[in-house]
């Protein structure tokens, strides 16, 4: 079926072994019981593993010539089925493009398939670090993060991936009639930002880095959700404290947090923070004043480098839900954008309205110049109908939901559409609709 | 008159030459026509120049024994007459305590009399820099900044001096019955923060530092105030752009800005920014999209190190007014805290209401987790009565005024009182009221 395509690839490594191809066609879509039903069993026909940009170009040309679908793949940790090929074709495993090209003036140029932990370690040697990373840093690639993610640890300071200045440039192989590698600068990179690889194959990225900091993992426990939330929001707003992460999980979640469940009182709400050494004293004093008790303190880097331990960021962002799912598959989650005003009252109100089905989980970050929080509530799944009711309940309270139980770019956004600019980029760079087909719902092939 | 005091000082350097003593009794109070009337001619009786903490302790003991008033002095750049002795006594020149004691884990320990430019240069050698500094960095001391200032360049990211985490510790010589040197940690440092030296003589400070960045001075010109303000606010809110300063001055001020008046069209509003190299491309693109034209670009550090040039931060914060005063003494200024909501509409409204008397000047920074701006409008001074009317006009529009035409701590604040904690610290550390008498209005000696 993909034989004509494969025959054009010369010595580029390819895999047709069905077991491997199936494995490399899956990501973390099973996170969602709805996506599980929709995507289970879907897979590509083959896997190609380009070694450099010339290979990626050859793959793109072969795909155009043979009308073969291409779905790029990094670490395969997307949790909306971003990397699952809906209509077969080839998975393009980008992970061999794994080198840092240069670092200067606080900017890194990197190949898109580089693993993010490896990248962070390499940056560290030069006194830098990633500005932000998903909680999947150990397995995700930088290209997969830009193409499939949105933000994470570090967003409290630097905002999300879509904020101006967080992606400086990208080199992209297009699927035009004559595929070519082009450089996108600044705002032009919106063409590939969170576009699920539907507009091009990213080969290189240029990103600003942050100065290396010896972050300290802290966890504080609080007898009530309200106390924890007040502290978390206050800490997040302290510009004077150098911080990378402020995350809140309610008492129900503690039971799923291996590093903390023996050090914090059962049922207590937990605030996890990554704080620079210079901010430790102030943070502890602030927690004290808010009635919190220190439950854990370790160096993030040491925990990350020790295979027997985990850094606390692996209890935050989308990993919070994963910790629950590891033990109990009956849970799922939502993504909620809380408004910056009356945030804490809304947090408490939602907890009151969904006492048995929802565990509160918040990630603090700025939105339009103001500290607010993203909610990633962990929800007991009973039925699709009930999940829809819960989404409606959040929206009735003015809390926007980005539905994580859908696999198209449009349905995952709060506005349910792609921007006109992104739609135009799709027509320009992939007019034949060969890239990750079906993920940009509104793209109807001519 | 201070003979008994001086005779107790041993070999501590002292000065009684009236010309020098008078010069060292003045600061920048003349900035305000009202303070000029009130403070002109006031001076100490002598000057003492302690070389180390032991000397400071000896000075404190001698003052207690002889009931001599002590007014600490750093660079003498305070602009509310903070350093002017109202009732004679001795000026304590702290500038010989000028060494960095250590730098580690992103924290510096420094003697309080160190010049801030010298401090920043020394930090730079170790890869660090000051988190924030007043526009008087070249002449101010770190102790004078903490005791008499409030924030400045860098506050856009780190907040003001009063924000938790920006002052980690302070060593302070008290004027108790038995003067001693004590260490204040964290929130305890509120005892000396912006207290005008009324609660103790600061000998050492412990402060978090920022990673050294090769800041770039940029100035953009805009045909209208509204366009400039919209750009400045948007830029200030970009967490993805590494920035240290965003300052706006309206078209009337450009004429007073030597480095810019030949490079920007006359009458255009100016936005000055300090941006990391990694953020230049995004900042220029953003300015472009807002209709701004690049009028100036240079390295902050190079301009700072070149005696023939000035860094653009010397056109911002309180220096904006100074640039005007250098040419025209009929101007003065106010300090206004704009609310974070409807900021731009209020900025335009105030410009509309005071077309001939007021030039708009804004400094962007976060307030309670939200980007807002401090206004330092330059005002044509006609009479005290009219100045009061203008203050009332701002306050009617919900814009809080911190009056810079008063010399007491209370009257300079927006609430016109000192906190109960600071009042208690005063009673504890200086029960005899010997430190900078008259500056804490509410302290009535027993
Ligand atoms: C437990 C868990 C926690 C998570 N936490 C976060 C988080 O904190 N923040 C966050 O933003 N996301 C998070 N995610 C989602 C996911 O976006 C991130 O894990 C990560 O960014 C994906 O990187 P990846 O290399 O695994 O990408 P993949 O899953 O391999 O790919 C993601 C998408 O990008 C496309 N793609 C990959 N490489 C390229 C390329 N070179 N060119 C073009 N397109 C490409 C793929 O086609 C796919 O559409 C989480 C997911 C899980 C399962
Ligand atoms: C042109 C101009 C621009 C300015 N810009 C800013 C600005 O951007 N931000 C800002 O916050 N301020 C600003 N200021 C005000 C002033 O606070 C700062 O210039 C600076 O912080 C003062 O430092 P200094 O060493 O000159 O202090 P001084 O003027 O010498 O003293 C200030 C106060 O601190 C006390 N003091 C000094 N040293 C000690 C000590 N070791 N122990 C106890 N008390 C002490 C003095 O008694 C006095 O009350 C500006 C002033 C001018 C004239």
TrEMBL record, chains A, B:
GO biological process: lactate catabolic process
Protein's name in the database: FAD-binding oxidoreductase
GO molecular function, one term: D-lactate dehydrogenase (NAD+) activity
InterPro entries in the record: FAD-bd_PCMH, FAD-bd_PCMH-like_sf, FAD-bd_PCMH_sub2, FAD-linked_Oxase-like_C, Oxid_FAD_bind_N
One Pfam family named in its UniProt record: FAD_binding_4
Family matches, as Gene3D superfamilies: 3.30.465.10
Domain FAD-binding PCMH-type: 40-212
SUPFAM superfamilies tied to this protein: FAD-binding/transporter-associated domain-like (SSF56176), FAD-linked oxidases, C-terminal domain (SSF55103)
Keywords on record: FAD, Flavoprotein
Protein's organism: Gluconacetobacter tumulicola
């Amino acid at each position: 079926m993909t034989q004509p395509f494969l025959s054009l690839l010369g010595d580029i490594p390819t895999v047709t072994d069905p077991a491997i191809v199936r494995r490399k066609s899956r990501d973390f879509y099973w996170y969602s019981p709805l996506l599980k039903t929709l995507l289970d069993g879907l897979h590509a026909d083959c896997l190609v593993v380009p070694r450099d940009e010339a290979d990626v170009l050859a793959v793109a040309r072969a795909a155009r010539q043979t009308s073969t679908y291409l779905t790029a793949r990094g670490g395969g940790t997307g949790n909306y089925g971003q990397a699952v090929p809906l209509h077969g074709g080839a998975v393009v495993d980008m992970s061999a493009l794994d080198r840092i090209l240069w670092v200067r003036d606080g900017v890194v140029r990197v190949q898109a398939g580089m693993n993010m932990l490896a990248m962070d370690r390499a940056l560290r040697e030069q006194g830098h670090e990633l500005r932000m990373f998903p909680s999947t840093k150990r397995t995700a690639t930088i290209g997969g993060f830009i193409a499939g993610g949105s933000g994470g640890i570090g967003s409290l300071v630097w905002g999300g991936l879509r904020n101006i200045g967080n992606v400086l440039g990208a080199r992209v192989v297009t699927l035009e009639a004559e595929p070519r590698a082009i450089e996108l600068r600044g705002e032009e990179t919106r063409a590939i930002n969170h576009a699920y690889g539907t507009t091009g194959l990213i080969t290189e990225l240029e990103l600003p880095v942050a100065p290396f900091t010896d972050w300290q993992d802290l966890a504080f426990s609080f007898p009530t959700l309200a106390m924890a939330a007040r502290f978390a929001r206050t800490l997040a707003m302290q510009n004077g404290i150098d911080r990378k992460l402020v995350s809140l999980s309610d008492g129900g979640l503690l039971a799923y947090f291996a590093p903390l469940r023996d050090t914090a009182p059962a049922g207590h709400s937990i605030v996890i923070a990554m704080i620079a050494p210079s901010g430790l004293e102030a943070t502890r004093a602030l927690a004290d004043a808010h009635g919190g008790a220190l439950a854990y303190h370790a160096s993030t880097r040491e925990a990350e480098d020790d295979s027997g331990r985990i850094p606390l960021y692996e209890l935050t962002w989308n990993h919070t839900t994963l910790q629950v799912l590891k033990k109990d598959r009956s849970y799922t989650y939502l993504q909620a954008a809380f408004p910056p005003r009356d945030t804490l009252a809304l947090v408490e109100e939602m907890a009151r309205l969904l006492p048995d089905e929802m565990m509160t989980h918040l990630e603090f970050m700025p939105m339009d110049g103001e500290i607010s929080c993203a909610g990633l509530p962990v929800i007991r799944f009973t039925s699709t109908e009930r999940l829809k009711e819960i989404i409606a309940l959040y929206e009735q309270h003015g809390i926007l939901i980005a539905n994580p139980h859908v696999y198209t770019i449009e349905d995952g956004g709060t506005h349910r559409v792609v921007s006109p600019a992104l739609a135009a980029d799709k027509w320009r760079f992939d007019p034949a609709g060969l890239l990750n087909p079906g993920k940009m719902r509104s793209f109807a092939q001519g």
